Amino acid sequence: MEEYFRQLADTAPRWNFIWMYEDRQQGKILSGLWMTIKLSVMCLIFSIFIGVVGAWMQGAPSRLVRAIVQGYIQFFRNTPPMVQLLFFYFALGQFTPVVVGVDGWTVEPIISNVGWAIVSLSMFAGAFNVEIFRAGIEAVPESTVEAAESLGFSRLQIYSYVLLPLAFRVSLPALNNNLVNLVKTTTQAFAIAVPELLYHSVTIWNDYPSAQYPTMLLVFVAYVGLVAILVFGMSRWERSIKIPGYGL
Q: How confident is the model at residue 188, as a pLDDT?
């Protein structure tokens, strides 16, 4: 297989699949793909958590709490995720404490570029998730809440045991779309030198211009595969929690 791609690179110089026969470039691709997967998973988890908590806070009796949540949503929903990422890393990053590095004389910020990427992208997607869960909660019949109140449930118990399980089913299709967008948005972490798939791919075709087309093709295929896995998993989950006859 390696010899085939070596010969292909000799006969068709624009199609140099260098990461198929050179270990160092292959390591870059695998490392970048693994970082993309970790970044996507962490952002998915945190964004859903933000969405669940934010939707609960939106129904808080305090007007101040509701205003804070609304301000958060408007800020992250109405500004580009790339601008947010750069703001978090370059503007807020300079105020974070530093620690001494492993070499004993350099200093490093306690939040790395990977950390800022997770924070920024999670908060960006979380703002949309808050609205998605809010819409799901509003779709739950009011009589369901009244029944829980009549049984003496607290506000948190009603949200945890009644509203959220039902709203989650309603929210899954829209949540699926937002999470797909989030996975694709992780490529923007390239701007702050997070070593994900696109970052390593660019370094490869900068060093080997003949590998540009194959590496671009690889990036496309990798993201199609990641999104397909996510959509498949979400669709299976949606079917598994469907309530027959409830319309959800």
A: 93
